Amino acid sequence: MSAKIKENELPEGFKDIRCIICPTGCLVHVENVNGELIMEGHSCKRGEEYAREEFVAPKRILTTTMLVENGFLPLIPVRSDKPIPKEKLRDALKKIAQTVANVPIKMGDILIENVLGLEINIIASRDLIEI
Ligand code: SF4
Question: Helix, strand or coil for residue 115?
């Protein structure tokens, strides 16, 4: 399968991206050719969308730990509830490192709301009780 997509601001060059949407794992070649996005190697629309996003604006779910005060454990595992743009991951990690959560915490509790104004929350990945 191949596709051509017109974009306003595309990164230069090309990337070979392994699609992780299904176990087939197609290798998708994505290239900016004179402002036109050329894609080859994907087998379906979902893979095309995944490779396009990975090339134009890659995002990741952020997983890390946060300090806890008076908790049964000193740290709690946390994650973003939506993928964060890759270029914002470092700033999001800094914000999490500067935050101390209070117990008791239930899995899914929002520990940082709207981190960096991205409309993404940092949530607890487990329960945590007091000491
Ligand atoms: S391109 Fe389609 S078939 Fe290939 S790995 Fe991605 S989702 Fe699966």
Answer: helix
